[in-house]
Specification:
about 10% strand, potassium, 7 helices, transmembrane, about 45% helix, nucleotide-binding, cell membrane, about 200 residues, mainly alpha, two-stranded antiparallel sheet
Length: about 200
């Protein structure tokens, strides 16, 4: 058999073996280990309430009032005062539109957007605009972050308590329960997962 033919056959066999090992066996092994060791995370960290899937603890979502005219594309969604609100999202929390606005710190459009958000949030929560936390007026890089700062969560307590007729102390305890510390104990800041917080809120009697 010519050398060049043997070389090609060897390469073809190697290709088939590596395809089976790395393209099939290895992914199945890793997926199997993940399913056994981390079943919740391996399946998307799905959050359920009363047996119904309501989202993922990894992906933020909006908590808005129903639109008066769902067929009107120009109608702006209004936040529901009964829920803790997430930080803004450049993609309206649509996973298919994940990303930031790409506006820099010197952008006049971004500065005006932040000013408008600050005024709207201050009026919505009934607080001084100067006290509105920065994460309440700026979107995350992905536009899908489910976390807000502890300060922003606590800013919303009085509004949610009034809308639901729930004691503020109850809400503060929920915030404490769903506050996550810094990554590895020193990276970033503590944050509150709004998806999990609102799930617990919906189950509060």
């Amino acid at each position: 058999m010519p050398t060049i033919l043997r070389t090609h056959l060897t390469a073809l066999r190697m290709l088939l073996v590596m395809t089976v090992v790395l393209g099939l066996a290895y992914p199945l092994l890793v997926a199997g280990i993940a399913q056994v060791a981390f079943p919740v995370k391996a399946n998307g960290s799905i959050v359920k309430s009363d047996g119904k899937e309501i989202g993922s603890s990894l992906l933020g979502q909006s908590y808005d009032l129903p639109k008066k005219n769902p067929d009107d594309p120009d109608e702006q969604a209004q936040p529901d005062p009964k829920w803790f609100q997430p930080r803004p999202s450049a993609g309206s929390y649509d996973p298919k539109a994940s990303g930031a606005s790409n506006l820099g710190p010197n952008s006049e459009d971004l500065l005006k957007t932040i000013q408008d958000r600050r005024a709207a949030i201050a009026a919505f929560d009934g607080v001084d605009p100067a006290s509105v936390p920065v994460d309440a007026v700026t979107a995350s890089g992905s536009g899908l972050d489910p976390h807000i700062s502890v300060a922003y969560a606590k800013e919303q307590v009085d509004r949610v308590a009034k809308a639901r007729n729930v004691p503020a102390d109850t809400l503060n305890r929920l915030i404490g329960k769903y506050t996550e510390g810094r990554s590895l104990g020193y990276l970033g800041q503590a944050g509150v997962n709004v998806v999990l917080l609102n799930k617990a809120l919906s189950e509060t009697k």
